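Re: folding output
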Amino acid sequence: MRDLLARQLADHVETARTVEPLLAQVADLGELLCTTFDNGGRLYTFGNGGSASDAQHLAGELIGRYKRERRPLPAVALSVDPSVLTCIGNDYSFEDVFARQVSALARPGDVVAAFTTSGRSPNVVRGLAAAREAGAKTVLFAAGSGGDAVRHADFSLLVSALTTARTQEMHLLLLHLVSEWVDAWAAGEADERGTYRAAPTRA
């Protein structure tokens, strides 16, 4: 069993090294979110299962804080309201649980981000398609080729992971990197392009 755990850790470390080529896309997403929030836009995010947890985690980092004291930022996870989810699932279909919410809420100037390990979940694909139709910018956190969802994504952060566990671990790393970028900007430590400056002094 100890050997098994050691192999899992080694696999995690090896997979984490493959994230480095994605740093340019992380920076692009950081810029997009800073511009979105600066212009009064919102982030809507969603996913299924563990990916729903990642979506909620990102929203929590932005509404609350990542590291710094700064203003709250408008982010909404679309997987947290069981009444809405079961209403849409019952009256329409589970494949529509995100798309219908996105159609109701997202507008041009907003960002809609989906987390998925496969890129093939029909409700995720439909959610991103609805975001495009609403005029929002779309972001995909996925793995490999991104599956069907990548066709509806303006920004794609695709990790090189072969298992669900490693994919979700890399998605957590990526959402923390994005949170670092936006957190520094919102606290006045960096501009929206990530150029750091001295933190503002407190009165």
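--- second protein (sequence, then structure) ---
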Amino acid sequence: MELYLIRHGIAAERGTYENDDERPLIEVGRKKTHKVARRFSKIGVRFDVILTSPFLRARQTAQILKDAGLSATIEECASLAPDGNLQTWIQGFPWDNLQRLALVGHQPDLGNWAELLVWGVAREKLILKKAGAIGLKLPETFNPVGQSELFLLTSPKWLL
């Protein structure tokens, strides 16, 4: 299975909203995310499902991906909120019959999750830019931690 970790687009500055989970994408963030979504569509990337953090900026990013035809389904996933738990998500997710899955979330969590899946330990060295993507191939036999392969790490400017 291919797993795409996608960081939300450019959002309003921290501290401009009373609750961090209410910060929306700003116009430049929407435009850049739309361009990234169109590029994924152009190269034939489609997702069986898009899982998103419950935070507004991530939900808006997931909706842009859906609107670009990358998936018909978006589901909120509490584990994708900042400081979410990878192990909880892995154990609780129904994996049957999925070929491509997108997770829309936050940095540093997505970078750390990628490191855990590839190397088995997070060192906070993979930096995922806003609207950037990490692609991982998960093993057929399941315990992906330390067993996955990195095939994509890109900032949005390389997709545009």
